[in-house]
Amino acid sequence: MSVPAEKKExxxxxxxxxxxxxxxxxxxxxxxxxxxxxxLKAMLRAIDKxxxxxxxxxxxxxxxxxxxxxxxxxxxxMHTLHGRALSFATGVKFANPKLKVIVxxxxxxxxxxxxxxxxxxxxxxxxxxxLVFTNATYGMTGGQYSPTTPMGSQATTSRYGSIxxxxxxxxxxxxxxxxxxxxxxxxHTLELEKTIHEAIMHKxxxxxxxxxxxxxxxxxxxxxxxxxxxxxxxEKDNTVNVKQADKLPPEKLEGKFLRGVLHxxxxxxYCEQYESIVMEKAKAK
Amino acid sequence: MADAxxxxxxxxxxxxxxxxxxxxxxxxxxxxxxxxGTCVAVKNLEACTRCQLCDLRCPDFAIQVFG
Amino acid sequence: MADRxxxxxxxxxxCVEGALYAGCKFFAGYPITPSTEVAEGxxxxxxxxxxxxxxxxxxxxxxxxxxxxxxAGLKSMTATSGPGFSLKQECLGYACLAEIPLVIVNVxxxxxxxxxxxxxxxxxxxxxxWGTHGDHPAISVTPAYVQEILTETVRxxxxxxxxxxxxxxxxxxxxxxxREPITIPAPGDLEIIDRMRPDCxxxxxLPYDDKYEVAPLAPFxxxxxxxxxxxxxxxxxxxxxxxxxxGANNERIMAKIENHKEEIWKNDELMLDDAEVAVFTIGxxxxxxxxxxLEARKAGIKAGLIRPLTIWPFPDKAVRELAKRxxxxxxxxxxxxxxxxxxxxxxxxxxxVVGVNRVDGEPITPMQILDAIKKYK
Lengths: 285, 67, 377
Known about the structure:
The structure holds three protein chains of three kinds.
Chain A: H1 5-8, H2 36-50, E1 57-61, E2 76-79, H3 85-95, E3 100-106, H4 107-113, H5 115-124, E4 128-134, E5 137-138, E6 144-145, H6 169-176, E7 180-185, H7 189-201, E8 206-211, H8 215-221, H9 227-237, E9 239-241, H10 242-245, H11 250-253, E10 257-264, H12 270-284
Parallel strand pairs in A: 1-2, 1-3, 3-4, 4-8, 7-8, 9-10
Antiparallel strand pairs in A: 5-6, 7-10
Helix pairs in contact in A: 2-7, 4-5, 5-6
Chain B: H1 2-5, E1 10-13, H2 23-27, E2 33-36, E3 39-42, H3 53-57, E4 63-66
Antiparallel strand pairs in B: 1-4, 2-3
Chain C: E1 6-10, H1 11-22, E2 26-29, H2 36-45, E3 52-55, H3 59-71, E4 76-80, H4 82-87, H5 89-98, E5 102-110, E6 116-120, H6 125-130, E7 139-141, H7 146-163, E8 166-172, H8 173-177, E9 179-183, E10 227-229, H9 243-258, H10 261-264, E11 267-270, E12 277-280, H11 283-298, E13 303-308, E14 310-312, H12 316-325, E15 328-333, H13 339-347, E16 352-357, H14 366-374
Parallel strand pairs in C: 2-3, 2-4, 4-5, 5-8, 7-8, 12-13, 12-15, 15-16
Antiparallel strand pairs in C: 1-9, 5-6, 7-14, 11-13
Helix pairs in contact in C: 1-2, 1-7, 3-5, 11-14, 12-13
């Protein structure tokens, strides 16, 4: 049976973001070219794919540019204190494990002021999805260096070049015990959508380190010409998909960040472990 | 004949949301878009392949391709 | 007949009993002397009733998780002492502004800094009111007996749920570690208050609806998708820069406590009616004061005791009236003068106000207080 030619023609049905956005909250506060908006869109498409009811989803953040995300999205949302999002989220999830809890945090929020909560959340392996928006900058306060700022980079508090070695959020999450660790970029937005979806569906602590650009501060301070330029250099050229990495010679991988799912294991989840104690005690009665 | 019958996509731009970062213009594989001042505009609709990369990489919910 | 068990308990254990009686279903905390028995007790008891206990990675995590638990709909508590209370201050302010019910137990130990972990003090009285930055409402209850720790913990939960605000249970190490026989109340003996839940349609729900003094609070996951933030916010919970709305909301969260002080205040009085000299104090110091007042009476001195069980909001009405009819108010406290500042403020120049203070990790003795009383023979 032949299909008429015109029906073969590609039809574009764009994703309806309004389904998950709160009315009248846009445009968002992020600067022109900021990657956070691109990541937010990938997150919404990933959530859509899960098919979860909006009433069952919580989006919880700390403080910073990325942490403004919950205000825009139509879920149970909480904008907490600097660094503390994971502890608030642990409380919400533990109190009601039926809720799907997604934490949106920045690299400063998660890895500096919230570093302790980050490693212990991973250690507990509580069922949270942690999206770290890594832009190597404290944007909200005007462009200071962060725990992921590459050495030698300019920032408003490293005018002579940063002398601090940066953290690798994925290595840290894995070492701390998270059962799902992945990386994506704003540039590879469809791949990121897939990664976030997989992270949400994973049972246990899932961490996705998302490299995106701060053109206003990091970009200007470090002589990037535009947001596009940053995306090409930092997100595209400086990362390699983990599936392609095996085929590349070591010199091609030097200094590059791997993208995709980097670590995925099955491990007892905190709320389920606790529930088994509760069941045992109930039986003993 | 086929060309004349070809249905063109509808690129919808929200000028209130566009912040003029030009990411969509720079990454469009077929050079459909251009910057007009601080807002994106359609330059060559015929060249659009409906790949949606402009929408996917727009940080501001400002551009979508329909049809 | 209702079953009322007699138990011989430590203050911190009575706190556990009080929390469970009040319906606490969530505890998150961090070990710290001299409050740890509260966490230990709840770690045993909560799993048995389907409640949640979690030991967090630090003090901040403890209170943050408890706030999360409360927002998910469970009556929540955290417990700490001195340095831990300092660490919890930022989150305490968050709970004030976001209006999330929460009970924080602070078993006071010697300070400043790490201080004297196993020694008693009453030096966090001002911190319970002024510890977190910004203007905010504060409620603190101050039990002095093991039985009272139970009943005041129940009252703290009731006040937290009734007013959608954090409530601090403040007692010193002596009361926290002292053992006394107490009666566990039977169900129904004490009033239990649960937070108001919304009954409107989700689309009409405003988490900070100013048509209420205390708006109903929906738990996360119940169909009311709303936003909570530590930023100054509008009635719908979203942040605002509108000075009118910021001012109105800040004034409202203060007024919801100020306008109900009569309901929150609770004083225990002993022989105050004809008193010429009154002792004003809390906690273990009130136990010494009671003895001193009784001894003074034996010696023919008209002494009396006022013991606030609510230190914040400060019982200014009772103190103001008392100041008009006594020669002096003596304020013994295990610090170098905190409550006395409030007593002085409220009494003005109507009577003498005298402090009895101690910060060496030892209790104030009845004799120290009696000596102060005797000056007004």
